[in-house]
Amino acid sequence: MNLISACLCGYNCKYNGGNNFNPVFEKLLKEGRVLPVCPEELGGLSTPRLPAEIKNGTGLDVLEGKARVINKKGEDVSEFFIRGAYITLQKAGEVGAVCAILKSRSPSCGSGEIYDGSFKSVLRKGDGVTAALLKKHGIKVISDEDYLKGAMEI
Q1: Which of 22, 81, 95, 139 could cross-link 129 (Cys pair, CB 3.0–4.6 Å)?
Q2: Beta strand 123-125 with 113-115: parallel, antiparallel or unpaired?
Q3: How many CB atoms within 10 Å of residue 65?
């Protein structure tokens, strides 16, 4: 079994209380191929919650203490993102996951591209906090967009 961002399967855990449902991912869930996780909720954040972005770096920088995750009010919410990433890693270990399909551009789940911390929809290269931690521990991370394009499989 592998991991998937819960919002992709229709769980209302997105920052605004909604989801990013796609029937392709629902099918993987129904087939028992993926375990849905929301690192932000696992880390203790409520839903809905203020949007957050990584300021001055990437998820790896957050894990190394070189950057912070800041919400739209300017509050540092890094500890929630870090805690959620480690709990997600623990769950990956429990189910023997070697792969995770994660929501693109998220400060937790983004893989390859994330928002730059300006809250102006500007993208930068890098991974979210959870994506970075999973990759660091040898778990293959696939963005939902790459999976849907057929660029990668689980």
Answers
A1: 81
A2: antiparallel
A3: 9
Per-residue pLDDT tens for 41-61? 999 999 999 999 999 999 999
Could you give the CA distance from residue 147 to residue 59 in angstroms, rounded to a whole number? 21
Q: Give the pLDDT confidence of 8-35 residue by residue, as tens digits.
A: 999 999 999 999 999 999 999 999 999 9
Radius of gyration (C-alpha) of the chain in whole angstroms: 14
Q: Are 124 and 116 within 8 A, CB to CB?
A: yes
Burial (Cβ within 10 Å: 0-12, 13-18, ≥19) of residue 1: middle
Count CB neighbours of 136 within 10 A. Answer: 14
- What is the DSSP secondary structure assignment for residue 105, as one 8-state letter? B
Nearest-angstrom CA–CA distance, 148 and 32: 18
State the DSSP string of 6-40. Answer: GGGGT-S-STTS-----HHHHHHHHTT-EEEE-HH
